Structure formats: structure tokens, C-alpha cells
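hi! just following up on the protien thing from before. the input was this:
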Amino acid sequence: MRVLLIYPLFPKSYWSFDAVLELIDRKALLPPLGLVTVAAILPQEWEFKLVDRNIRDIEDSEWDWADLVILSGMIVQKEDLLAQVRAAKDRGKPVAVGGPYATSLYPEVQAAGADYLVLDEGELTLPMFVEALDRGETSGIFRATEKPDVSQTPIARFDLLEFDAYDSMSVQFSRGCPFQCEFCDIIVLYGRKPRTKTPQQFIAELDRLYELGWRRPIFLVDDNFIGNKRNVKLLLRELKPWLRDRGYPFDFSTEASIDLANDPELMELMVEANFTSIFIGIETPDTDSLKTTKKFQNTRDPLAEAVQTIVAYGMRVKAGFIIGFDGEKTGAGDRIVEFVEKTAIPMPMLSMLQVLPDTGLMHRLKKEGRLLDWESGMMQTTLMNFIPTRPLEDIAREYLEAFWQLYEPVPYLDRVYRHFMMMGERRNQSTSDEIVDWKGIRALAIVLWRQGVKRETRWTFWRYLFDILRYKPSLFVLYMSTCAVTEHFLEYRELVRQGITSQLEMYLAKKAQLQPEETPEAIAV
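and the predicted 3d structure came back as:
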């Protein structure tokens, strides 16, 4: 069997970092870990080719070569995923689709022409799919009634990736999260009991990447890396000597819950294992909103102090924020900006609340008759896909104002500086810290020119840069890369403003046409 694996395009988003990738001459931030894991689970006597559409187009010869086309993607990739399903069917190819989008909204994928829907987690459903092919079945839906043991997951086929195209590598240690946030689909897709690989299994994956020549940052795609703290600590104790013996070839970043700040041993182990950045879902400084959305873990300790504790250990904190929770009071956007400034979080990801499929929030709002069209949601450039408890136009305006303020060049640079001055020094330098090739030197020169000469940040930029070199020299490369990220956000905030403003104008025009007896539900956002 000759299998063409296709990863769909991502639209421009918070995570796309287009302008930054252009600086360093990379095509995409991360590779499709799901598809290279699928390739490892399928029969190894099959042949595989992988095309990441974020890197390049599919060649006619690759379409002709394929006996079977397999796609996977997230909800934000749906437009191109569905387009590639249709393209494959136009060429007479059988198509199988899996991943988070297909699992959550498989009727949409089926309507586009997919023959096989390989849903849930592939360790269980891919073998069902292969058996169906062996029986000569030409279609089918394959679902699991339990969660797989990820300690049996094979090493991903990293050899299928075009390494030079990516800024960072993707790996995974665990799936699932123990918490119960109402808006989150991770606990729907992967459950509330975190399942982990073994330390030996995870390190074998790093061995494979090392053998293939990877020497850049690694992102652990776990939605909550510390969901099973006992097993994480076992891994980190094994990881430290592995890294030391190889001269620290990688540094790591991941996502974690705020309770990391309550575990000094865990933070120490992470820093010693070259973890440099953590993404944390703060969501909002409003305690009532956190309770409404069942994010109780963020209400137990002061959030600002927790962020500062993690930073002081030596890890940069990135954070997610959401506006539009039920019962939210006016001024939520201002309170988020105040919190970000207080904690000096450089890269806040601010979004309006979106309803994801099959979440607790979806079921509650459906029962209350407040859901709108799915097509309206899932992006920072789109309005909310449900009727909120306060006027949508107020939420949208607060969102736009806050998003704009957060990425003003001077305040952004000021937060980056304060954040890094609070950070503990790097314990171990890695090859990721070196700016030795032409791409790194070119990127550095462009940032120095744009922020140190061309923009209003010029005087502040140089003063801060010399302070970092003097007081925090081990953080210089991470500091400069964080400064560079503003190049992306200056462009992206324009897209956010254009998208939200145009949709808001349409919304208000339709609202003005409503008859007195009609309700906001009559507006198709």
C-alpha cells in the first residue's frame, strides 16, 4: 500500500508566527506529530510520503503514486482539510481522515467525500481500519470505546519530515488532563485521567531525533504536561543525565496548569532538564468567571504570584486569556491588560470565548438555546459562536482594544525586559542557544534594525539589550527571540481588528433591523 499523508494549511493565527518564521527562513512552526505517529502505527511494509501543505503543495506525481490518502487536522484547519478530501476524490483516491476535527465533527468530513473515518485515538482505531481494508471494505467509521495505553505507542516516523522547514520539533509524553474546565475539549477527546509514556520510551524518541540530526527546540504537545506529576518527575530524572551526556542538544517548552507553581521540586527538575518556556491557561483574573467555567484550579492561589514564582525558577511564561464568560462584568478587557502588565507576561494569547464541539459549555448553551452557527467560531478573528450574557458589541470592543494595547511595540518590549529580568538564569546552554549560522545572524540583524533603529522603541531597545547582556547573559538568545515575536503580532493584530470590525458592523446592522419582538438569536453572526 502506498500512502500519501496530507497535513492541511493553517490560517494565520496567534500560533502561526509568519513574520518570525520569515526572519529565520523556516516554513512552519511545528511538524504534524499526529500523522508521523499514524505512519508508525500502520503496517511498516507499506510505503509513506508526507506532504505538509504549510510547507509546500502536493505534486501531481505524488497524487498519481498514492493508493490511499490519509489526512488529519484540527478544527482551524477544516477549510483546507475538506478541500484536500475533495481533491483526492476528484482523482479517484480512497480517503481516510482522523484527528481532532474529524473526531469532533465527522459528518462534515463525511459530507466532503471521505471514505473512512478513523476517529478517536489511532492506537485503537487504526488497526480496525487496516482489518477493514484487508476485508476489502470500501468505507467505514471506526471508533474506540476506551482510551489506549500510550506506553505501547511506537516511535513516530520522524524520518518522513522535512527537518529544515520547521522551527521546532513536536513530541508527546502524555494525553489527558485531570481538570474539568467547561470550555475545553481536551478532556472530551483524551479524558480526565492523564496517560503517560514511560521515561525509556520517551527518551528512545529523543534518541531517534538525535540520530536524525535534530538540534533545535522541542515542543511537548501535551495539553497539560504535569497532569500526572509522579510520572513527569520520573521522566525528568531520567532526562537530565541523557541531556548532559549529549551536551544539551535540545531545550524544551510545553503547556502546563498553574499549580506547577506549588511544586518547587517539579519546577527545579524541569529547569534542570532544559525546559525554558511554559504556556499556561490563565483565562481571566476574574475569580467569578473562573468558577463559572469550572476552572477551579486557578482560584486556589493568587494567580500573579504563581506566574512570578514560575518565572523566577527560570521558565518564560506564555499565557492564554479569554473574554466573554457568562456573568462577566464590564471592563474584563481592561482587567486582563492590567494583569498582563502586572505579571509582565510578554506573549498573552487573548481570545473571545468560543464553544467547542461536545464540551460541557456546548451542552449547557444548547440546552439554553444560545448556540449559533459553528462556522462563526474557532478563530481570534471571528466573533463568538453563541449568545453571551452581556452585549456582544461590548465584548468585541473590549477585546479589540485589549488586543491592540497588548501588542503596542513599547509596552510589549517593556514586558519582555521585565519578564527576563525576573527570570532565573539558564542552568544549561543548548545548541538551540547558538546564533552561528547565516539564518540566525540575518534574523538578529533585522530585529536590531527594526526595533533598535527604525521604530519608536529604539532608545528603550538598546538600553534593555545592554542590561540583558550585563545581568542575564545566559538568557540573551531567548530574550532576542521573544523580542522578535513582536514582528508577528504587529501584523496579526491588524488582521484581528479588520476581521472583528467587519463582522461587528454586519452584526450591528442586522441587529438594527430586528423587530421589537425578535431576540438576538435571530441574528446569524
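Residues 262 and 306 are 8 Å apart (CA to CA).
The chain has a mean pLDDT of 94.
cheers
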